[in-house]
Amino acid sequence: MTFLDAVSTLATGPLVLLFVALATAFAFEFINGFHDTANAVTTVIYSRSLPPLAAVVYSGFMNFLGVLLGGTAVAFSIVNLLPVDLLVDARSGAALAMVLSLLIAGVLWNLGTWYVGLPVSSSHTLIGSILGVGLANGLWTGQGLAGVKWDECLKVGLALLISPALGFVLAAGLLLLLKVTIRSERLYQPPPDHDRPPGWIRTLLIGTCGGVSFAHGSNDGQKGMGLLLLVLIGFLPLHYALTVTEPQRAVQVYEASRQLPHLFAAHGQSLPIELETAIAMLQRELEGKNSFDELPVDREVRWEVRQAIMSVARTLKQVAADPHTPQPLRHELDRLRRQQLLPAVEYVPVWVVIGTALALGIGTCIGYRRIVITVAEKIGKQHLAYAQGAAAESVAAITILIAALTGLPVSTTHVLSSGVAGTMIANGNGIQQATVTKILTAWLFTLPATMALAGLLFAIGRLISG
Length: 466
Description:
The chain has 466 residues and is an all-alpha fold. Helices cover 74% and strands 0% of the residues. The chain has helices spanning 3-7, 12-36, 38-46, 52-69, 73-79, 85-89, 91-115, 122-140, 150-181, 199-235, 237-240, 250-266, 273-286, 301-321, 327-341, 350-364, 369-378, 386-406, 412-426, 433-465.
């Protein structure tokens, strides 16, 4: 069944809302392009390494590549913040309100902060919106704080908290190292009008701009994928419960369910009781099937298979983390979980990847000026110097790429802005207290503000939908 086949099963109302939600999710990523990626082009524009048009087109292309090649680990860190069961268990009214509320809250906050030229993290915005609807739904249904996966929130929160501090310290340290090894005052002073950097520093600045843009695409682009997956699972849970890109993975899941009892027995371990029901369900539903497409889509079998796969994967992760589990068994369980089970439920449709890449890339080419001026002119008491831009962007690119590879969502805005501030301190320029105070205030208030806005929108949506 294709996407068009799936949407043909929806009534007119949900169908319209689905396309509104998809358009809003793509709009969020489009805004993210000119909101966050403006940081990447600041140094090449202010150093006159590239003209503005060439810089943003180049950055947009690198963002596009970053989304295409950056993987999906961050996308599922975003999806897993919210128990996906809520989107299905709550049925249409709550699911629609939940998805639309977090999308609209994210777009409104990003647009508002961009309008006043404030570098605010789209990561904070998105995560705050997800937490807001999760908490609001939990309170609405009497589940209290159970509407959010707090262990995932802690991991994501630590990444968002630590990464700006790393950006500040490492960028300052790199600039000091450059000052010791490359003694050219020209590199550490704001460039005069009509000045152009030496060829080697220009090449470096263009390279770091591309690196930050690629890293931004690989990390923030995946957040857009996560948003779109929440939309698709919320509106079409039975169709997108299991991979539509590799439905033949049904065979691997079935084989894994058969191997597990023998694997535990071979290592002298008893099969955890939590696995018995889920394994039996997978064997019953997938026996003799070569593809997930052979499962009925008019009943909830596909969703039940997904839940069974997720249950087995969670239990295997817990067993593998137990120090009492024999090392060879831990290795085999981790391999089965990663290679045979999770790919069946953790996937991104190709059209979602390409659509996200295009939205982010095109957004990069539009509306960048407000944030560029703030980063280059208003953080430090002097304009950005060549070496400062190279140091801040090098650190930002490396930090964000490492985060993307490890599945941690971090803020391009905060890593780079704090890196610029670090280089200003290290260079003895000082910082503009008013601008830094505004950025820190936005950093502190983005999470509670978007949580409150998304929660309020969700409550309004639930009242309207009944």
